Amino acid sequence: MKTFAFEKELSVQHQKVISSLPELIKRAKNEKNPEFPIADNDMIIAVAAINASLSAFINVLNSYDRHIKEKLLELETQINKQE
Predict the structure, then answer these.
(1) Which domain of life is it from (predicted)?
(2) Is the whole-model pTM more than 0.90?
């Protein structure tokens, strides 16, 4: 099965999130957020990990979207040159 650049980038970002978890856990344990009051440290850690994962996923999607738009513009330019 062919692995696409999108999947590779998602994997890279996922590994970055995983490697940042120890620091994220340390910060989450010490952080008190008045907008999102949670008493349970485990829940704070889970929310922080989910936020990091979602942020990485959104960044990859945005990057992929920009790449696709660039390719479509290149294709449109090539088509217009042929006409």
Answers:
(1) Bacteria
(2) no
